[in-house]
Amino acid sequence: MKALTLEHLNKTYKGGVVALRDVNLTVEEGDFFGLLGPNGAGKSTMIGIISSLVTKTAGRVVVFDHDLDRHTWEAKASLGLVPQEFNFNNFETVEQIVLNQAGYYGIRRRLARQRAERYLRELGLWEKRRAVSRTLSGGMKRRLMIARALVHEPRLLILDEPTAGVDIELRRSMWEFLRRINQEYGVTIILTTHYLEEAESLCRNIAIIDEGRIIENTDTQSLLTRLSTHDFVLDLKHPLEQLPAKLTFNVRQLSPRQLEVEIHKHQTLTALFSELAQAGIEVSSMKNKSNRLEELFLRLLQGDRDGSSAVA
Amino acid sequence: MYWQRTLVALGTIARKEAQRYLRIWVQTLLPPAITMALYFVIFGNLIGPRIGPMDGYTYIDFIVPGIIMMAVITNSYSNVVSSFFGAKFQRHVEEILVSPTPNAVILLGYISGGVSRGLLTGFIVTLVSMAFTRIEIHSIPITVSVVFLTSVLFSLGGFINAVFARKFDDISIVPVFILTPLTYLGGVFYSISLLPDFWRMASMANPVLYMVNAFRYGILGASDINIWVAYGLVLMFISILAAFSMYLLNRGVGIRG
């Protein structure tokens, strides 16, 4: 079953700014789907329309076979939103915020209390349930928004840059939590993020949006295999005075102890190491020069704007 | 099933609204009690005896219904305007907008908050007034229905104000420059029979006059106007404002991108 279908979605804001241009997109049930794009590409507008915070100019939104315009209650009840910015009442307690959200979905108080306890415990906020929300730390506020979005147990959870501005430890724990609810509870997740490492690590499928259009929509692995080259930085065991001239790989010396190597699809790391060993160069460690998806993302955007295919 | 869920959603908004004004009772419930007590002391006890009877009643008895109504009007309006604008300003209105709660329920929930605060304040002011005079209600059905409908009407007014408001100044302009003059000139402190013909006719264009007088009729049994005209006007205004509020909500004016 399709968790989300967008058909011919268009949005033009007052003043003529076109945010979405005939967007068609489907997300399968159980997917962990990444929506990537630069600032102003239309990601937040798209999420706003799906979550009813933005009115569309034209098109159709279907959530688990429920048309958002015709079967509004069913469609909205299937959907949970974790917005980019904190949007809860600063004067209410953590528990009140979660209970009220359950109430808006028609969940009776008794069941709402059970669920609030469950999700607040899972997100490490149970001890803070009586704290007024404005006194929480930034990380706690992020987790509160996730608990609030889950209290009605949606089948589709949309997170708009959920880890923006959070520390590495919290980001990793949120990744774990999202993986778990996706795998164990079967919640379909749509994630927008600027951290491409996050998308590469979490998402099975990715769509890239730019200037209001979907310019790429495929699975993460296929996307990554389309990169024709990988760049690596090699740390050397012994300092190197001069780079041997006879190397067949495209190697650049960054410092006496560091080399940068570009490896093409048809080349192998085994061949590289063999060649370096023959030249008497010992490698102590190696890392990707940059995030692979980031590289691809930039090339796709550039290609789309130039009207050419930049990914070989 | 749908109706059960809708009622839960309505109850949630109504409870949240009541919790809001009860949590800040020092700002919401206490001030009208003190202000209205001062009105009773100054206009009722100190100046009232020198003014003499008004429409056949002692001055304090005459102003009690108007002062109660003034508290109801002000509090119903200000509760909804500040709560809904606050929800927009802090963006937690989005909690409701993303949920399946129908627009009519959102409106009803906020109106219920305004009405409950308006009626509670009216009750508190009534208790305060009983320290100054003896209140005998002429018609309980008329008194209760008029105060309820007036509270609904001004809650709707507050809602529309909040929908259009973009900054905090915008939620004080209407109460200060429109609502207060209309209330003070709406026959709270005087009978329009005292006015010259022109001003009496001009006063007839003030909708607050009808509500204050209908309420006064409910308590004292005396009114400057026909109370059925008052009922008709209040119901007409409620219908217009409710329809306009629903139009604004359905269009997403001021709340959806």
What does this structure look like?
The complex is a heterodimer of chains A (312) and B (257). Chain A has 312 residues and is of the alpha/beta class. Chain A has two domains: 2-224, P-loop containing nucleotide triphosphate hydrolases (Rossmann fold), CATH 3.40.50.300; 226-292, 2-Layer Sandwich (Alpha-Beta Plaits). Helix content of chain A is 34%, strand content 29%. Chain A is built from ten helices and 14 strands. Chain A has helices spanning 43-50, 72-77, 94-104, 109-122, 138-150, 168-183, 196-202, 220-225, 269-278, 292-306; strands at residues 2-12, 18-28, 32-36, 58-63, 66-67, 79-82, 156-160, 188-192, 205-210, 213-219, 229-236, 250-255, 258-264, 283-288. In chain A, the strands form three sheets. A six-stranded mixed beta sheet of chain A has the order 6-7-8-3-9-10, sandwiched between helices. Chain A has a four-stranded antiparallel beta sheet with strand order 2-1-4-5. A four-stranded antiparallel beta sheet of chain A has the order 12-13-11-14, covered by helices on one side. In chain A, strand 4 and strand 5 form a beta hairpin. The mean pLDDT of chain A is 88. Chain B has 257 residues and is mainly alpha-helical. Chain B has one domain (2-251). Chain B is 76% helix and 0% strand. Chain B contains twelve helices and no strands. Chain B has helices at residues 2-23, 25-28, 30-46, 48-51, 59-89, 93-97, 103-129, 140-164, 170-184, 197-203, 207-220, 227-251. The longest helix of chain B has 31 residues, at 59-89. Chain B is elongated, with a radius of gyration of 19 Å. Chain B starts with a helix and ends in a 6-residue tail after the last helix. The interface between A and B is medium-sized, with 35 and 31 residues.
